[in-house]
Design brief:
The structure is a homotetramer. Chain A is mainly α and about 190 residues long. Chain A folds into two domains: about 1-45, Homeodomain-like (Arc Repressor Mutant, subunit A); about 45-185, Tetracycline Repressor, domain 2 (Orthogonal Bundle). Helix content of chain A is about 75%, strand content about 0%. Chain A has helices spanning about 5-20, 25-35, 35-45, 45-65, 75-95, 95-105, 110-120, 125-135, 145-165, 170-185. In chain A, helix 2 packs across helix 3 and helix 5 (about 75-95) runs parallel beside helix 9. Chain A is elongated. Chains in contact: A-B, C-D. The interface of A and B includes residues 22, 155, 160, 177 and 181 of A. The structure holds a DNA duplex (21 and 21 nucleotides).
Chain lengths: ~190, ~190, ~190, ~190
DNA sequence: AATGAATGAGGCTTCATTCAT
DNA sequence: GATGAATGAAGCCTCATTCAT
């Protein structure tokens, strides 16, 4: 059963969030997952591999959340807006996971291979943006750059929402405001 | 002599950038700085304190770079634009330092106290933005949020410039384009 | 079925030769033998017992090879010469097994009991040598010592043959030369 | 001071002899040497390096013992005889060290580099033997082979002496007898 | 009898920090 | 103040052995 794998990843997320990657010994992860130390290494070759797995897991949850209900055939704006909402929604609902994912992405702890796989999954977003530019809806800057702005602005929205602990009402308003700013900026 | 302090901080920056914080033993830092292992602890109570000092140093250089030539009495837009240019300029010129500063900010390695001091120094920016909103030049969203967008967009610009290794010509164009997008988005 | 016992011993020999005793986990032995980890312990109480069994197996093969065609009723010299040839022949044909047996004999990994049983089987050689001395054919030194010289000289012959990768022709010559030296030395 | 290096090597010899290489943890070696665990690794990069150092140390003592009083200008037989006596003398006086050296040579624990250095130091013996063959004093077999026989016979003599716990009188006799057998065998 | 996941003691090694010189 | 050898707790990982299926 892959029950234990899941437990170990979940335990890692818990502890990494509380103590950081380097202050969390594998032994504590195992104990927190309710298994013996050695068991961890039956499921993950090394601590590095475990960290990779945590990253992949988070990324996958995140992607999956964003893609839920994606209006494949909706208008261009509708599609961009959908990502905007779901991205921020995930970050706000799972702030620990969101923050962990962000830290991992920057920290050289995740293997190149794991990072690559992200790029692949985000290809659809790149394509979306590219088309926006081609169609003249977006300003004519390199699509990679527009993608970064897109990401950065959503990230900022998430952080603000979390830090200010926005409730339902104000959250919706905040998300909308953020989107308007972004949209105004990047549309021709 | 505070010469040695500087050497130690500089050595830390070098090595942290190459190997990461946790793979860089204090002994190696000391050797790279040309002093004995024990000497490091005459200048910094612990490794944590050294890391804090590195962070403060980078932040200070960064602030100082941004403030150089700040048009205290210039127009509102001129002042915002100045920060935009100088921020990105620093990031592009010192990518290692920039990346280190970013990582430190996120990694729980820097004490709260060190992070606070940043807030203080950035107060001027907050004030600037606040006034922009009050004056009706900026859209009416919480100033903290606008500050985050500001930061996030500059950060994106830096990353794009570094990753694509932009030369002088294209760099200037890139910076300007980025600013236009930002400005268009946040101005009423 | 003792099929599996044999497979496990054979797998051990393979892997011990490649990696050494201490770098070969029981789990790898089991896998290489095509059985489950736990199965190994159904056949051998512990790794030590398995190592003992390997030793006994090798020793037995070796003895058996040496005794094949032993001229029970041949002349004294013919009998000694037979051992000489067959000993070296085995070592050269099965260098891995030969080397393993030698290592095991020296390495404290084999139980005293296993070593004793060797002594018993070699008793015939001891008797042979003793008689050689009594008959005045061999020099008058303690038979145990003569036995050691006998063994040592055969061992040297094997090592030289292996290291120099002697082919059929030169091998025969080498074996003969070695025997002549030995014989000249130990005969009165 | 290299005092501690010596203590650590000496402790290793003690413990390796009692328990074997693999049953002797570095922590016990350190404790037995009267230093902290970590100290061991200030002097030896790893356990493997320590084992190498032990081997080199033993080999050096052995060589030095053999060369003491070597009759550079003595007759051919005198020179060979000298090595014979001093080799066995060392083995008998330091049986633990002798046995350890032998085990190490066979056990794949010693790096190739360490083994090579032995070859170099034994070059003189090889030359000696070569000349013996050229001069017609020794039988015409490959010098490498004669060297092996030489070594093997001395080794056998040591083992017999140790196992039978020979006292001064009988030891001298034993050494002489052994030499006679060897000499008779290998001289034309 | 066979399986193989689970166990956890134990091994090697690292490194922040101390302190005698 | 400077030095750097010494320290030993703590981390990662291995693997012989067990046992529920």
């Amino acid at each position: 059963m892959n029950d234990k794998q899941t437990q170990l990843i979940e335990a890692s997320i818990d502890l990494f969030a509380q103590e950081g990657f380097w202050n969390t010994p594998t032994s504590r992860i195992a104990k927190h997952a309710g298994v013996a130390t050695g068991t961890l290494f039956n499921y993950f070759e090394s601590k590095d591999v475990l960290i990779d797995a945590v990253y992949k897991q988070l990324k996958q949850e995140w992607m999956s959340h964003m893609m839920t209900g994606y209006p494949e055939n909706g208008s261009f704006k509708a599609r961009v807006e959908h990502i905007w909402f779901r991205f921020i929604d995930w970050g706000v609902r799972f702030p620990v996971r969101y923050s962990l994912m962000t830290q991992l992405k920057l920290s050289d702890l995740v293997s190149e291979e794991a990072k690559q796989s992200q790029a692949a999954e985000l290809a659809f977003a790149y394509t979306m943006i590219e088309q926006g530019i081609t169609d003249g809806q977006f300003v004519d800057v390199p699509p990679g750059y527009l993608g970064m702005i897109f990401y950065a602005d959503m990230d900022a929205a998430v952080h603000f929402a979390i830090e200010n602990n926005l409730g339902d009402m104000s959250l919706t308003r905040h998300i909308t405001q953020g989107f308007d700013i972004f949209w105004k900026g990047v549309t021709g």
